[in-house]
Fold this protein.
Amino acid sequence: MLWMGVLASALAQESSELPPPPVGPGAELPLGPTSDAGEAPPVLLPTGDDRPADVALIGADNRTSQDMEIYVRRDGNVYVGDEIVLDRYLPEMLEREREGKPDLRIVVVADPEAGYARVSSVLRLAQETGARVAMVVEQGEGARAGGDPLFPGLGGKEGVTELGVVDTDQIKDLKPKRWKFPQNPYASTDFTAYTLEWGEAKVGLGGFTYGIAPRIQLQTNPLFDSVGVLNGTAKANLARQGPLDLGVLGQAYYIPIDSLLNAVDELSGGGLGLSGSVAGEDLFLQNATLFGVGGQVSLRLAQPWSLHGKVTYLRVGAKGNFNLVELPDLLIPGLTIGGDNQLVPRIQGDLVSFQLATDIRFNRRDSLVLQFRGPIYAGARGAIDGSFEGINGDLDFIVAYSDYVSVDQFYAATLSWQLQWKHFEARIGAGISDPQFAWIIQAFDLSYRFGGKTRRDERTIRKGFKENVRDLESGGDQAPEPTP
């Protein structure tokens, strides 16, 4: 460009010393090195209303510690260091820099083929900060006209390597499969303090879970709902400070147990502990309620490794005909009560339990999960309603027991491999427990997840890959023929 050629010719004059840039309106504009007579050369920038005022034209080697360089590339993009900066963010960035450097000088480095109007607009943005402004026009071998400031030294076609044809096997290797994605520490939500993303849903053996708001999810089991077991669980990831997350949860169940469930228990040989007989008396359970609250914590110890802990308090209530000495473990796990048999029509139990877990994540799909859960404290109260002749009103007899519980009386420990595909998730493992087979619920899971920002981002990546493949198959990798 003509104006750049004039500037370049002015800079071609060699000088060991350059005058300092002018400061303030009305100052002289030494736009090149001084002549032998000590006089400044004439103004070389184009004249007119659009000429930037108070801008010094300096050499590429005339820099100070107070300089901040802005590079205007030939395509008009503006770079500060290796970072591309939009015009609307440039003034704020310059103001922050000037606060730390009162004597800041903004040096605009222009590609020789950058448009004059574009260079002028960047100069004006720099001048609006009130800082000193200078300009350098790259020339000769030091110019970045044919390359990119992110890759200095590569200009034009020199240094550019022609890529060969991409074959089918290479395309398969480039396909964005889940095991190639980086691991996601927040993917698992059942044994952690994390929740589903806003708008994300999960349908599985544990029920239906939905992220109703950022870091808040609700869960219910439609299968239980269909047979009259009303249930719901709410969970919130309240705080996230670096690698530490804290969560709270609450749950409620109403179980209208009738002869159907007791019949199932009888068929299983009393495995559920909901029916049977003691001293000729029939034992049965009519209905049960459960309310619980708890807290969870998750800590990322390293990028692929996290620890998780949970403490839960449950209040269980049931009506039926119970033997307090032989309470079903399903209601009050691990509680052992001594004394004579007591048949009671109502029971209320309290249980405090804990769960520890750790997961090691190999990628977005595969992880290893170790879990352990057990009780801490359990208690039960049995109430008997009675009426007697000669006594007005009813009498309530209450028999209560409570004790700390040893974990070896009711526990489950499992080691599982967890797979998380695009939508389906599965957990397969093995474990030990008391009572027997209680570990199965903890070691196995199957669910389907959809929605949420993370999956939308992954879908965008996969969509872009497919579009690129279509372009390659249609010859889109070939450079267009130059127009005459």
